[in-house]
From TrEMBL:
Upper taxonomic lineage: Bacteria, Pseudomonadati, Pseudomonadota, Alphaproteobacteria, Hyphomicrobiales
Name this polypeptide is given: Acyl-CoA dehydrogenase
Classification via InterPro entries: Acyl-CoA_dehydrogenase, Acyl-CoA_DH_C, Acyl-CoA_Oxase/DH_mid-dom_sf, AcylCo_DH-like_C, AcylCoA_DH/ox_N_sf, AcylCoA_DH/oxidase_NM_dom_sf
Signal peptide: none
Keyword rRNA processing included in the entry's annotation: no
Pfam families noted in UniProt: Acyl-CoA_dh_2
Keyword presence, Oxidoreductase: yes
Length: 414
């Protein structure tokens, strides 16, 4: 039986919940279609508009919306399990939807009110949200050149963003900028509105189909009132990192599946090999087993991290006393930092070791096996793990709390 015939969880341990298989069954046919074109899209740098359209039609973006409000009511372990499956099909897609699920997470846990009702309805309908937070250029760390300002009877947005992952595929864009009083705040802008331009200029060597390039705003119309970022979900950094871990897990599983298939089908061997065919060579089989074990470990870490973020979500929903909720958020941030540090290394090893089981023909661009390492290395460059490891060490030794927002920019001397 091939891996494509087996249950997706056959080699990866216990599914995230008893109902997970039922929930996942709705989306697996979509994942299968996405997987079929993944290598060709990679070779040709063909942006996945069609694949995003399939996910949108299936209302994949409504996973976290409660069932009573028209969504699927997925828990966070279920969400991150499904994102890992999507990442196994094509790792560009969970990253392209990372900002969507961040906006959805903040929205579903928000206090009941007009703003929550409005956006939950859009999420339930299948609308997709991109994000525009980071900036390049001269902005100092912790500040934004992008301005959110009054424009007649509405709010407007003017500025330039980069790393606007997924915005090219989105209906709405969640943008962070500087308000009129100098405060850090956020607004939602229609992606196709006048004054909005999304440029496909992402030139990274990995995750090349995520549309992580530039967004330009020129008095773009904002919907509703600005929301201060201080009022948004406090476990946001842990959540966004957990999406990366799920994507990395998917990469490891995809690489494991492809090396299995390649070894099974390979007829050529070496004069000094230990078997007549690679599929019977104990040394080759050891490499395959090692790759599978690393992918399994990545999934186990991903599941543990997801449970930490779920606890933080439940603390927000329960309205726990501030000190208790803060302690849970600190724990989630430390857990995710530790998970990132280890899981990243496992997946990068997968992307390298798989070639030890194959011949030089495996380096053919046609097969695009190099994409696994390139994509993993690109994701791992976000929120660099060297800083996360230091933060964990400082917490362990000195009880120093981790930062709850990771920002980039220039350090300006007085």
């Amino acid at each position: 039986m091939s891996e494509t015939d087996a249950s997706p969880w056959a080699a990866w341990g216990t599914a995230p919940s008893p109902r997970y298989e039922t929930l996942a069954a709705r989306f697996r046919p979509v994942f299968a279609c996405i997987r079929e074109g993944a290598v060709a899209r990679e070779r040709e740098r063909d942006l996945p508009y069609e694949a995003i359209g399939w996910l949108k039609e299936a209302r994949f973006g409504a996973l976290r919306v409660p069932e009573a409000e028209g969504g699927f009511g997925a828990s966070l372990p279920e969400l991150f399990g499904l994102l890992a499956e999507l990442g196994q099909a094509d790792s560009n897609l969970p990253q392209a939807l990372r900002n969507h699920f961040g906006f959805a997470e903040d929205t579903v846990g928000s206090p009941v009110g007009e703003r929550r009702t409005h956006w939950v309805e859009r999420l339930a309908a299948g609308d997709l949200f991109g994000g525009a937070w980071s900036e390049t250029g001269p902005a100092a760390v912790g500040t934004f050149e992008t301005r959110i300002h009054r424009s007649g009877t509405r709010w407007g947005l003017t500025g330039r963003k980069y790393y606007t992952t997924g915005s090219l595929f989105a209906d709405w864009i969640d943008v962070v900028g500087t308000g009129e009083a100098g405060e850090e705040t956020s607004v939602v802008v229609p992606a196709k509105a006048p004054g909005v331009e999304i440029v496909d200029d992402w030139d990274g060597f990995g995750q090349r189909l995520t549309a992580s390039g530039t967004a330009l705003f020129e008095d773009a119309p904002a919907i509703g009132e600005p929301l201060p970022t201080a009022d948004r979900f406090p476990y946001g950094p842990a959540f966004f990192q957990a999406v990366h871990l799920a994507t990395l897990t998917g990469i490891a599983r995809a690489a494991a599946g492809e090396v299995v298939q390649a070894v099974r089908e390979r007829n050529r061997t070496y004069s000094h090999a230990a078997g007549a065919r690679p599929s019977t060579d104990p040394q080759v089989l050891q490499v395959v087993g090692r790759v599978h074990g690393l992918a399994y470990a990545a999934g186990a870490i991903n599941g543990q991290a997801a449970r930490a973020v779920q606890r933080a979500y439940e603390a927000r929903l329960a309205g726990l006393p501030e000190a208790e909720a803060h302690a849970i958020n600190v724990a989630a941030e430390i857990e995710l930092a530790q998970a990132q540090s280890v899981l990243t290394g496992l997946v990068l090893d997968v992307g390298t070791l798989l070639f030890d089981a194959l011949g030089a023909s495996a380096t053919s661009r046609h097969d695009a096996l190099d994409r696994h390492w390139r994509n993993a290395r690109t994701i791992a460059s976000h929120n660099p793990r060297i800083f996360k490891e230091r933060v964990v060490g400082d917490y362990a030794v000195n009880a120093t709390e981790p930062p709850f927002q990771w920002k980039i920019g220039q350090i300006r001397e007085n």
